[in-house]
């Protein structure tokens, strides 16, 4: 195509608009209002008390937890294509330059490091070869289908 923005411009727009914390923070008031409704709390109730009362983390903390869980699970799955991107690329590839914020991988590794989780202690998950959903055949006995119903005894 000869029209429209080039790839670099589109990626900058995506990173700025879609992945920005500002857009993600727009969901926080909705989350807070939902907690207020669920708990029957006043509009003026402090947000931290809503989280404590509901036993629910903030969306930011939930995002961090989900991202960390994903990276930790990915560490054990060497056959996953994302494993190579996340763990075999030099970490310097994920570092932020002075103009932008660290990306997903760099932020998640920082949270894992702050939680004092040693990635070297995570063992590889050995999946059966081939995986059970591939090349699986069921043995079904259909010998009774060849018989007429009248010839099959009522009690076997």
From TrEMBL:
Q: What keywords sit in the KW lines?
A: Nucleotidyltransferase, RNA-directed DNA polymerase, Transferase
The organism's superkingdom is given as Eukaryota
- Give the GO molecular function terms: RNA-directed DNA polymerase activity
- The name on file for this protein is RNA-directed DNA polymerase from mobile element jockey
Task: Tell me the organism.
Answer: Plakobranchus ocellatus
């Amino acid at each position: 195509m000869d029209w429209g923005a080039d790839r670099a411009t589109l990626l900058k727009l995506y990173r700025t608009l879609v992945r920005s914390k500002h857009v993600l923070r727009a969901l926080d008031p909705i989350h807070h209002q939902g907690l207020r409704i669920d708990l029957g709390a006043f509009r003026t109730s402090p947000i931290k008390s809503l989280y404590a009362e509901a036993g629910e983390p903030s969306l930011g903390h939930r995002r961090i937890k989900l991202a960390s869980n994903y990276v930790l699970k990915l560490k054990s799955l060497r056959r996953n294509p994302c494993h190579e991107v996340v763990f075999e690329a030099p970490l310097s590839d994920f570092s932020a330059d002075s103009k932008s914020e660290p990306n997903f991988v760099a932020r998640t590794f920082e949270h894992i490091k702050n939680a004092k989780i040693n990635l070297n202690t995570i063992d590889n998950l050995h999946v059966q070869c081939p995986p059970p959903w591939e090349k699986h055949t069921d043995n079904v006995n259909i010998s009774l289908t060849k018989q007429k119903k009248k010839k099959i005894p009522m009690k076997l």
